[in-house]
Design brief:
Distance between the termini: 58 Å
Oligomer: single chain
CATH architecture of the largest domain: Up-down Bundle
Number of domains: 2
Length: about 170
């Protein structure tokens, strides 16, 4: 049974519209902490879309990595930055109108193309289990996996150094 057989197209698109509303709130809210919370809910919504589309592993990774780790790091960075509450720092972007005009033009160009596209439905996809993926990461792709972990560790150390440099 496909996704539309379970929840129906209207509720699926309604859920996607809710994610878009959260994304707009993320970039338009003046309070940086509230923006981070809206971003976390947006990322949870994206994970739910993955679950609806039967990509459970991607949904789990989305929640663990982005919502769990990255958003925790972002919220800690916001809370550790003492100058964020300073009234002399501008809390708003002055380029809202050009950005919204560019987005409207992009939507004007893309939406008709998306509607006209005939989306092919593939009935049988080769599925990869989490065990197979883990075995591939620890055998064939172990070097890129370790290099990415070193880059992330360096970024974390750099963020700590930047946060402590004010003192």
């Amino acid at each position: 049974m496909d996704i539309f057989g379970l929840i129906g197209p209207a509720s699926f698109y309604g859920f996607m519209a809710g994610i878009l509303v959260l994304a707009v709130l993320t970039v338009t809210t003046r309070n940086l902490f509230h923006s981070a919370i809206f971003l976390a809910f947006t990322l949870i919504g994206v994970a739910c879309i993955y679950f609806f589309l039967r990509a459970e592993f991607l949904g789990g990774v989305q929640i663990l990595l982005y919502v769990g780790a990255i958003m925790t790091l972002v919220i800690f960075a916001i809370m550790l930055t003492a100058k964020m509450g300073d009234p002399s720092i501008p809390q708003s972007n002055r380029q809202r109108l050009p950005v919204f005009l560019a987005l409207a033009a992009l939507a004007f160009l893309l939406v008709p193309q998306i509607v006209k596209t005939s989306w092919k439905v593939v009935e049988s996809l080769k599925t990869t289990s989490a065990v197979e993926l883990g075995q591939a990461l620890m055998s064939e792709f172990v070097l890129p996996f370790e290099l990415i972990s070193i880059v992330l560790l360096a970024a974390l150390i750099g963020a700590i150094a930047i946060a402590r440099s004010d003192q």
